[in-house]
Amino acid sequence: MVRKTLEFITPDWTMPDHIQAYTTTRKGGISPSPYDSFNIANHVNDTPENVEKNRAALNSALKLPASPLWLQQTHSTQVINSQDWQEGIEADAIYSNQTNHVCAIMTADCLPLLLSNASGTEIAAVHAGWRGLADGIIEKTLAQFDAAAEHIYAWLGPAIGPEKFEVGLDVYEAFISHDPMAEVAFQQSDDSHFLADIYQLARLRLRQHGVSQLFGGNYCTMTDASRFFSYRRDGETGRMVSLIWISNK
């Protein structure tokens, strides 16, 4: 049995009613600590039975038109079309122009990025950790869209906040070598460490490629322990999921 009511975050963008998008919180499932309680990931040592029950509760609560298209995420820049999805496929972004294809990205500090064109005929879900961001996951996903960039909306979901995301010189240099303007997203804490703003880094990439309709980006998974899983905070923990689909209703 589900112990508590499931809680969801909905993007604060204005989209056509047939675009459905949500991010889960950790509240409402059946998994025990340290996966308490609404863990939907089957790769974190939670029991398969708990994960399946949590996923069933997700499907029921959101009245999903189909099971989410789960990805094996590897911090790559691999983008797939939802029509090419198959069980176990490795990718870190999924694009769709089909109705009722539920695109899904799991996170627990990395940035979940949801995209849709203004008319709601094209969508994507992106797993944007620092490595994927630096290597071009946003650019590769935008390239899938037929819509012009100025007609694409982006929502930045719950990720580690800029006051908690400490990184090394390698991360700083990975972004600065691509774009010196990325320096604005880093605050140096000592000779070899920085506080990085993953939201700002994503916004920079999006704006560079013509996407100006930007929403979200005001969360911190690490500090908000009651709502969010955080790998950096807890190590062994669960995962949230960010979902987007084009409804035919």
TrEMBL record:
Locate the coiled-coil region(s) and give their ranges. none
Q: Which GO terms describe its molecular function?
A: copper ion binding; hydrolase activity; S-methyl-5-thioadenosine phosphorylase activity
Q: Which UniProt keywords apply?
A: Hydrolase, Metal-binding, Transferase, Zinc
Instruction: Identify the Pfam families for this entry.
Output: Cu-oxidase_4
Q: What span is annotated as the signal peptide, if there is one?
A: none
Reactions listed under catalytic activity: adenosine + H2O + H(+) = inosine + NH4(+); adenosine + phosphate = alpha-D-ribose 1-phosphate + adenine; inosine + phosphate = alpha-D-ribose 1-phosphate + hypoxanthine; S-methyl-5'-thioadenosine + phosphate = 5-(methylsulfanyl)-alpha-D-ribose 1-phosphate + adenine
**CDD domains (alphabetical):** YfiH
What the entry lists under InterPro entries is as follows:
Cu_polyphenol_OxRdtase, Cu_polyphenol_OxRdtase_sf, Cytotoxic_necrot_fac-like_cat
The record's PANTHER family line, in alphabetical order, gives: PURINE NUCLEOSIDE PHOSPHORYLASE LACC1, UNCHARACTERIZED PROTEIN YFIH
Can you tell me which family this protein belongs to? Belongs to the purine nucleoside phosphorylase YfiH/LACC1 family.
Tell me what this protein is called: Purine nucleoside phosphorylase
Organism whose genome encodes this protein: Methylophaga aminisulfidivorans MP
